[in-house]
Amino acid sequence: MATKRIMDYVSIEPIRQKNESLIKISWKLTTLKRKDKSGLLVCLVPALDLHFSAKDNDSANLKSHALTKSFFDHYMLHSKNGLKQITLELHKLGYKANDNVSTIHSLINNRPVKAKFKIPELPRPLEFEGADEYQNESKMSIAV
Amino acid sequence: MDKTLFIDIIESIKGITFIRREFSDGIHIHFYEGLTGKLVIIDASDEEISEDICKAHLIKLGLEYLIPTLFNKN
Predict the structure, then answer these.
(1) For the segment A6-60, what is each residue's pLDDT rounded down to a tens digit?
(2) Half-sphere exposure of A99 (CA within 13 A, CB side)
């Protein structure tokens, strides 16, 4: 059986509002869900390598949002040079942007540019073949 | 595995750094740095963590050597 490709993305966009500069981060990420032998839902956000379990579908979807947001919060709000840190982390996870080298160079030097990072060809892990999917789409804005 | 037991085990290992915890949208989240410097985000909301998830966390933390002993059915 051919593995299903997951095409997720994270986009970064500088926004200027009145006297405030913001960075808007938005994402569309897939959460895979399967039942383990004890009946718990085993969940994976492949694009961020996030793993968690949940008692039911609603809880899994809620956790998907919370944990994904916390991932971005951690780098943008709780790390020094947040833009640089999140850019490096996305790069290490395999994300690529158009004009990747130039984009990454700008971002890690704290020059916000509009960028859409995609993970090229992320195969579904074998243990998640046939797993349910949940699309987590959200965004956040941070003042810089 | 019991969540409290799992958390206690990983926090007892030298080299595992507890960074912080947060409570977001009703979800308890712990942040750790593993032995290889990797960020590991652990959902600590439920009383039980799936065995498969515990193993995934241990691998990311650099503690895969614990898997055979912690999850040995014999």
Answers:
(1) 578 999 999 988 888 899 999 999 999 999 988 899 999 999 999 999 999 999 9
(2) 8
Contact between chains at A52 and B53 (C-beta distance less than 8 A): yes
Is B51–A36 a contact, with Cβ atoms under 8 angstroms apart? yes
Cβ count near A70 (within 10 Å): 20
- pTM, two decimals, is 0.90
Cβ-Cβ contacts under 8 Å for A104 (sequence gap 6 or more): A87, A91, A97
d(CA B44, CA A70) in angstroms, rounded, equals 13
Single-letter amino acid code for the residue at B45: S
**Bridge-partner residues for A17, per DSSP?**
A20
A134: closest CA of chain B, how far (Å): 18
Q: What is the ipTM of this complex?
A: 0.92
Neighbours of B53 (CB within 10 A): 24
B43: nearest CB among A67, A78, A89:
A67
